[in-house]
């Protein structure tokens, strides 16, 4: 297990290194030269020179890469080149808790919907309940998250006025302000995720319910509740966890778009504003952090998989 | 030899066709999906004839509700929403299909080559594909648009490249299993060229999972384009696309709900229809392997 964990961990570090390297070189090799565009926005010749020095652009590409990489390892991602020119790390430090709160809450809401929906659907196969769940799952998969966000704002913020339409409140302001700002965006992000998981739980449970040990469990007189939660569900969850890992991508992509609808300055909004303002240090930093969240959450899912399924651990 | 193979094909074809028909007759969702898709394709092709107004024509009837003249209302500049959505259908379908077409060609070529040749070629290609696979397609597309800039061509390139890994993986896994088949061995023994073996003997047998993957990907590409347009990273500010119409209307949804509802409804209907059809194809083509993103 230890060597498996170590191998996966080293693998993730290599992926992050490759991403950082790709991010660095792509911005400098593409036609249209975004760096030149960025410099053109900087102002007069003196300012351009100063910025070139500041960014180390007067040196060779590999020296630039080495310096950038070293700085990155020391937690220095440069400064924003738009507006207040604050440190990129400061911008990101403010954004990360917002995106994480949002994704985690979306995750919890999605599972809270998907688990009962999937179980109901599998245990009442081919009934009206099953058909309804399946149709709702199709709808959830097909609805663009930003549109769902707009619909939620129209209904719950504009008309019913139950919840705030936009913005974010940190947890230090109290639980309710934090929570109330995150409910609608979390639902918007989590819906597609919950549809995928519900479908997966259904098909996985249907497989497990056919197994011999389920007949044994029934034969020895266990209650349906004990059969479901003691035997069926733990086994059915093994493939579901892999899919959760893959579908986690949806939560991160969803956060990038939905944060922009709710004006929550998380990683997604920072990334998009950075792109629109041609603020490349910020874009680079945001891409790195989003990638890191993604790579390491996949790592956690993989390790969890090893813990749950001994076959993985022992191989 | 050729007689046998013709006989075999003749036997297979009606079987496959009847399986398509048999599954379609039972599948109400697929029927509805095909009908909705047909309507949207008609809407896209005949948009200039069907649209009551020019999509960019501004009138004095600003934010008018649903009337006979403007069945879906107008936006803040008095532009007819129905006409804009109809023209938006063209962009969405064009980008959805062309993106997947490009991704499919590049991805399949990479997957076939990696799977068939193995060795270091496979290692290099698959390391890259695995790296890309580790990231959400949409994030990759956003980043590529950041690098290349916005505009129709750049959006298509960004989305296509983002979807390449999905096709490469399907094509490679199919090639790996087909490479061991007897008829591929026979082709090799008969001295056919590698290209012929790949494209005549392996590719046609890998078509079913690729069709299913392509169908699913079109829906993701349409959603991706809509999201990019919505974020201001799409085609341009003047071409009406579903995502852009929603982004334009976003500030007015409290006064004019139709601006927030109808463009999104169009996206959802098309994506839902494609998903229904994709589900049926998976069933009809007997593709068991789960295609997820």
TrEMBL record, chain A:
Pfam families tied to this protein: BPD_transp_1 (PF00528), BPD_transp_1_N (PF19300)
PROSITE patterns: ABC_TM1 (PS50928)
Membrane topology, as annotated: Multi-pass membrane protein
InterPro entries noted in UniProt: BPD_transp_1_N, MetI-like, MetI-like_sf
Record-annotated ABC transmembrane type-1 domain positions: 96-305
Predominant location: membrane
Family: Belongs to the binding-protein-dependent transport system permease family.
Listed name of the protein: ABC transporter permease
Organism for this UniProt entry: Pseudodonghicola flavimaris
Phylogenetic lineage: Bacteria, Pseudomonadati, Pseudomonadota, Alphaproteobacteria, Rhodobacterales
From TrEMBL, chain B:
Membrane topology: Multi-pass membrane protein
Keyword Kinase: no
Family designation: Belongs to the binding-protein-dependent transport system permease family.
Principal cellular location given in the protein's record: membrane
Protein keywords: Cell membrane, Membrane, Peptide transport, Protein transport, Transmembrane, Transmembrane helix, Transport
Highest taxon of the lineage: Bacteria
Annotated transmembrane regions: 32-53, 93-118, 138-164, 198-223, 256-278
Subcellular location: Cell membrane
InterPro entries, sorted: BP-dependent_transpt_permease (IPR050366), MetI-like (IPR000515), MetI-like_sf (IPR035906), OppC_N (IPR025966)
Gene3D superfamilies linked: MetI-like
CDD domains found in the cross-reference section: TM_PBP2 (cd06261)
Domain ABC transmembrane type-1 per the UniProt entry, residue ranges: 89-278
UniProt protein name: ABC transporter permease
């Amino acid at each position: 297990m230890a060597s498996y964990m170590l191998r996966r961990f080293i693998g993730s570090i290599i992926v992050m290194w490759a991403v950082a390297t790709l991010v660095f070189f792509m911005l400098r090799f593409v036609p249209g030269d975004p760096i030149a565009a960025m410099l053109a926005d900087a102002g007069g010749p003196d300012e351009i020179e100063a910025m070139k020095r500041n960014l180390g652009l007067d040196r060779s590409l590999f020296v630039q890469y080495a310096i950038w990489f070293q700085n990155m390892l020391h937690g220095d991602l440069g400064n924003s080149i738009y507006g207040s020119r604050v440190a990129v790390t400061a911008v990101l430090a403010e954004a990360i808790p917002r995106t994480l709160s949002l994704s985690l809450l979306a995750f919890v809401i999605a599972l809270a919907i998907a688990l009962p929906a999937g179980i109901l659907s599998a245990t009442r196969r081919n009934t009206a309940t099953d058909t309804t769940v399946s149709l709702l799952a199709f709808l959830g998969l097909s609805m663009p998250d930003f549109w769902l966000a707009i619909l939620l704002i129209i209904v719950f913020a504009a008309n019913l006025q139950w919840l705030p339409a936009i913005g974010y409140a940190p947890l230090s302001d109290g639980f309710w302000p934090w929570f109330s700002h995150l409910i609608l965006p979390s639902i918007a992000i989590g819906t597609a995720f919950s549809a995928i998981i519900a479908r997966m739980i259904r098909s996985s449970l249907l497989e497990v319910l056919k197994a011999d040990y389920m007949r044994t469990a029934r034969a020895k007189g266990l209650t349906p509740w004990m059969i479901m939660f003691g035997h069926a569900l733990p086994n059915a969850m093994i493939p579901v966890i892999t899919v959760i890992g893959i579908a986690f991508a949806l939560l991160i992509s969803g956060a990038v778009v939905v944060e922009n609808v709710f004006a929550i300055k998380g990683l997604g909004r920072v990334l998009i504003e950075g792109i629109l303002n041609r603020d490349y240090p910020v874009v680079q930093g945001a891409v790195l952090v989003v990638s890191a969240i993604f790579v390491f959450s996949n790592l956690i899912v993989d390790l969890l998989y090893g813990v749950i399924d001994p076959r993985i651990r022992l191989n | 030899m050729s007689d046998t193979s013709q006989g075999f094909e003749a036997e297979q074809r009606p079987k496959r066709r009847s399986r398509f028909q048999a599954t379609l007759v039972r599948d109400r969702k697929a029927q509805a999906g095909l009908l909705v898709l047909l309507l949207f394709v008609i809407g896209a092709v005949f948009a200039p004839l069907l649209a009551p107004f020019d999509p960019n024509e501004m009138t004095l009837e600003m934010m008018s509700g649903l009337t006979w003249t403007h069945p879906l209302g107008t936006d803040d500049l008095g532009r007819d929403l129905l006409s804009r959505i109809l023209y938006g259908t063209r962009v969405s379908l064009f980008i959805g299909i062309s993106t997947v077409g490009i991704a499919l060609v590049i991805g399949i070529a990479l997957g076939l080559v990696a799977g068939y040749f193995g060795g270091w070629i496979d290692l290099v290609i698959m390391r890259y594909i695995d790296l890309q696979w580790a990231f959400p397609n949409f994030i990759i597309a956003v980043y590529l648009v950041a690098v290349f800039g916005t505009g129709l061509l750049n959006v298509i390139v960004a989305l296509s490249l983002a979807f390449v890994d999905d096709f490469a993986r399907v094509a490679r896994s199919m090639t790996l299993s087909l490479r061991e088949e007897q008829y591929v061995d026979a082709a090799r023994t008969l001295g056919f060229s590698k290209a012929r073996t790949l494209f005549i003997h392996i590719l046609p047998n890998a078509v079913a999972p690729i069709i299913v993957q392509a169908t699913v990907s079109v829906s993701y590409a349409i959603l991706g384009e809509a999201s990019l347009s919505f974020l201001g990273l799409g085609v341009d500010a003047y071409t009406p696309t579903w995502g852009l119409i929603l982004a334009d209307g976003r500030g007015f949804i409290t006064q004019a709900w139709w601006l927030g509802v109808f463009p999104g409804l169009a996206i959802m209907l098309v994506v839902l229809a494609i998903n229904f059809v994709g589900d049926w194809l998976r069933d009809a083509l007997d593709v068991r392997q789960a295609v997820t993103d």
